[in-house]
Design goal:
Elements (H helix, E strand, L loop, with lengths): L1 H16 L3 E6 L2 E6 L2 E6 L1 E2 L20 E4 L3 E4 L12 E3 L6 E2 L12 E4 L5 E2 L12 E4 L6 E2 L13 E4 L4 H5 L9 E4 L4
Parallel strand pairs: 3-5, 4-6, 5-7, 6-8, 8-10, 9-11, 10-12, 11-13, 13-14
Antiparallel strand pairs: 1-2, 2-3
Length: 189
């Protein structure tokens, strides 16, 4: 009976692994697509991609709906998820310090994003065209530096920015961030 149970469990693991694809996503970072979840794991920075000429290998499809970045990854590459047409959720760990330009560009299915307190820089157009956004949660009390228009084409009057209570005044007076008409204490969510 125990041998049969082990055989069934092994078969289930093998079946679940079928169809999973893995790519190199940085010198010490990999990306694995299993089902509709893309998991980015390893240590260090992700590669930077060009949405047109050198797109991320998992992009340009609706096969990715969830992105999970595992602790250890330190940066999200330029245009990394711009081609993930079905993207609706992303998990960013505290190890990430920067988000590359265009990383989530035109992902209208993304309704909320939480940017951890470790992020100090966000590249140009990182969330451009994310018209489905209703809330942005930034856990750093000091506003991360913007490079250009991070939230281009997003109706800032319809998106609430949630930040640590001690950082509300800083966000209300910092270029880029002060464009949000709603800036509230993250604890009030």
């Amino acid at each position: 009976m125990i041998k049969l149970l082990k055989a069934v469990m092994l078969a289930a693991v093998m079946v679940s692994a079928v169809g999973a694809q893995t790519w190199e996503a940085g010198e010490k970072v990999t990306a694995t697509l299993s089902g509709r979840t893309l998991t980015i794991k390893g240590t260090g920075s992700m590669f930077h991609y060009d949405d047109m000429d050198d797109a991320a290998p998992w992009g340009n499809s609706e096969s990715v709906s969830n992105v999970v970045i595992v602790d250890g990854v330190t940066s999200i590459g330029t245009d990394a998820f711009a081609g993930c047409l079905g993207l609706s959720s992303v998990t960013i760990p505290n190890s990430v310090k920067s988000i590359g330009g265009g990383a989530f560009r035109y992902r209208a299915g993304l309704t909320s994003v939480t940017i951890p307190n470790s992020v100090t820089f966000i590249g140009y157009g990182a969330f451009e065209g994310c018209t489905g956004l209703t809330s942005v949660i930034v856990l750093n009390p000091t506003p991360p530096t913007f490079e250009g228009n991070v939230f281009g084409e997003v109706n800032m009057a319809k998106v609430c920015l949630y930040v640590p209570s001690g950082g509300i005044a800083a966000y209300r007076s910092t270029n880029g961030w002060k464009a949000f008409s709603c800036i509230k204490d993250a604890a009030s969510r």
